[in-house]
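Re: beginner question about structure tokens

> Can someone show what the tokenized structure looks like for a real chain? I only ever see the sequence side.

Sure, here's an example I had lying around. Input first:
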Amino acid sequence: MTANIITLARIVLAFVVIALFQMGFYLQLVAVALTILVIYLDSLDGYVARKLGVASDFGALFDITGDRIVEHIYLIYYSAAGLMSFWVPMIFITRSFLVDTLRSVAYTREGKTPFGEKTMMKSSLTRFLTASRFSRAVYGISKVVVFVLLGLIHALRQGVGQNVHWLPDVWLTRLTFWTEILVWIMVTLNLVRGIPVLWDGRYYLFDRYLPKELKEDV
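And the corresponding structure tokens:
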């Protein structure tokens, strides 16, 4: 229960952050700092669940749901604010629906989970890409860096409008350029972690069309 409360708190906090991003310069800086906390809570809920011995299949799925909501809140807002291409949230949302649908079907039909001993992933490679600590850490770090930098750019632009110049314009331009590159690296990592789920879950996609022998091979 404690871990699930942390997940809920993270979702609520994400909405608070977006509200702060629409206020003045200094409150936007607070939103940037809170963004770090929002991403940190993503790792904390799982740690608490394991530490207290209350980890469950539902908790794991609810944690993923929390991740999706937080991701999409930030991506949609940043896109609406003109900080990133609208293609970024479109790619994330499409990938999320496909992957999470397959995971739900795998759990409903066979009790398979996204991670852990009962994972739906079928090979060591796909398990590494989707569930390994290394893969999740790299992807998590990319989200922290991108979300924080985009929030900072947003705040700095707001500051310029209020005659607050924390960075020379040329530095802000360079920061924006490199952040855009990091955004697409994050998108790439998102797809790299999602495509293996589609591959190992293709059985569920083409259930009616695969012969029995092929299903067993899949």
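Each token stands for a local structural state, so reading them left to right follows the chain. The chain has a mean pLDDT of 83.
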